[in-house]
């Protein structure tokens, strides 16, 4: 297994979490004696009753990334415009013709399924001691602050600037490494285009975020069939920290994004990536582009598997609004200036929700407390 990434947990002041031996959701879901959902998995807010958009015009934008790589300036210009509209109106889009082999994404989903099928005692070694471990297998976000167990099994590991991965099952590390490399190549192309869509120089986001040392994570989610899906939740509404997340799944519905006050089902096109804006791109644009709220519902029909790859700044980088989007009168900065590491620390502390949309004064008060 790779050596531990040099995360300064002492500076982060993250208290180690030593939960009792965790049982995955998978064996519970497969239990023949389960007649009702255990209360610890009951999510009180019934997301299934919230309004869902059925407007055919409300379709998630599609971006052909191949034109950003090999297209002429005339061909790239409308794509940059489409990207601007997608990021400002939606905070997300589907990416097609991205060059990541479909066979590779399917192999990742299959090998993660094999990981989930491992005996509990074999998975136990990857459960980790605290939420900042570079490899961590769990069901929730943070056992010290979680109020309810999520209906999912979750494996998270850091893939850049240093690569970490479980060493089982056979072939897992090799597939994860190749997918991570190919995924990062796509993210770089998109971030360059997003810089241009904001009217900034092409390399602005990469330079401002120190992306060369930026943190990349592979987060795989296993949502087993749930006998009472209306009482459970896969992942509650949240936005991702970082700049950009790219996601694939096994074709089973469950992911939703919020748009104009309604939830919209995300049904990915074949071999498409789902891209959504993270909090730190929202900060960099001073709110011009919003980190999209999304959630994952439980279902009683089929197991859903997703593999998400968030791409963030380097841990020691302060992400602040670009000067072009700030003035002292009509456009003051909307976010406090803290490092990516400090931002994650606030999220883990439970002092703020997973959506960092506090105004400037509230943010200062929270950070100072």
Please give a structural write-up.
Helices cover 29% and strands 17% of the residues. Residues 1-22 and 354-369 have low confidence and may be disordered. It has one domain (50-324): Jelly Rolls, CATH 2.60.120.330. The chain is globular and about 60 Å long. It has an eight-stranded mixed sheet with strand order 1-2-10-7-12-5-4-3. It has a four-stranded antiparallel sheet with strand order 6-11-8-9, with no helix packed on it. The protein has 369 residues and is of the alpha+beta class. It has helices spanning 9-12, 25-29, 66-70, 73-89, 102-116, 120-123, 172-197, 204-209, 279-284, 340-349, 360-368; strands at residues 62-64, 92-96, 135-138, 153-160, 216-223, 235-238, 244-249, 255-259, 262-265, 273-277, 294-296, 304-311. Belongs to the iron/ascorbate-dependent oxidoreductase family. Keywords: Iron, Metal-binding, Oxidoreductase, Vitamin C. InterPro entries: DIOX_N, IPNS-like_FE2OG_OXY, IPNS-like_sf, Oxoglu/Fe-dep_dioxygenase_dom, Plant_2OG-oxidoreductases. GO terms for molecular function: L-ascorbic acid binding; metal ion binding; oxidoreductase activity.
Looking at this protein, list some descriptive labels.
single chain, disordered C terminus, 17% strand, 29% helix, Jelly Rolls, 369 residues, metal ion binding, alpha+beta, eight-stranded mixed sheet, four-stranded antiparallel sheet, globular, L-ascorbic acid binding
Brief synopsis:
The chain has one domain (50-324): B-lactam Antibiotic, Isopenicillin N Synthase, Chain (Jelly Rolls), CATH 2.60.120.330. Mean pLDDT is 85; it is low at 1-22 and 354-369. By secondary structure, it is an alpha+beta fold.
């Amino acid at each position: 297994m790779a050596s531990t990434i040099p995360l300064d947990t002492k500076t982060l002041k993250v208290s180690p979490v030593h939960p009792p031996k965790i049982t995955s959701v998978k064996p519970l879901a497969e239990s023949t004696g389960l007649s009702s959902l255990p209360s610890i998995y009951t999510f009180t807010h019934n997301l299934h009753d919230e309004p869902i958009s059925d407007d055919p015009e409300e379709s998630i934008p599609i971006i052909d990334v191949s034109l950003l790589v090999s297209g002429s300036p005339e061909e790239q210009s409308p794509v940059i415009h489409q990207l601007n509209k997608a990021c400002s109106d939606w905070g997300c889009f589907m990416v097609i013709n991205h060059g990541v082999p479909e066979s590779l994404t399917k192999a990742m989903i299959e090998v993660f399924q094999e990981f989930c099928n491992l005996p509990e005692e074999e998975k136990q070694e990857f459960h980790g001691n605290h939420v900042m471990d570079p490899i961590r297998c769990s069901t929730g976000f943070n056992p010290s602050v979680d109020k309810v167990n999520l209906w999912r099994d979750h494996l998270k590991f850091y893939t850049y600037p240093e690569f970490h991965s479980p060493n089982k099952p056979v072939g897992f590390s090799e597939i994860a490494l190749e997918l991570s490399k190919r995924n990062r190549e796509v993210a770089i192309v998109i971030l360059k285009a997003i810089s241009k869509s904001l009217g900034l120089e092409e390399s602005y986001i990469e330079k401002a975020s120190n992306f060369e040392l930026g943190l990349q994570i592979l987060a795989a989610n296993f949502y087993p069939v749930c006998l009472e899906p209306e009482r459970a939740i896969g992942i509650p509404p949240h936005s991702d920290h970082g700049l950009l997340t790219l996601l694939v799944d096994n074709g089973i519905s469950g992911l939703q994004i919020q748009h104009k006050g309604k939830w919209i089902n995300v049904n990915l096109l074949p071999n498409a990536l789902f891209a959504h804006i993270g909090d730190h791109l929202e900060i960099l644009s001073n709110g011009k582009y919003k980190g999209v709220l999304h959630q994952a519902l439980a279902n009683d029909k089929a197991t859903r598997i997703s593999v998400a790859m968030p791409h963030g700044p380097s841990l020691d980088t302060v992400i602040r609004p670009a000067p072009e989007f700030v003035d002292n009168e009509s456009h003051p900065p909307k976010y406090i200036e803290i490092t990516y590491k400090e931002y994650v620390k606030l999220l883990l502390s439970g002092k703020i929700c997973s959506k960092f949309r506090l105004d400037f004064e509230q943010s200062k008060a929270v950070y100072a407390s």
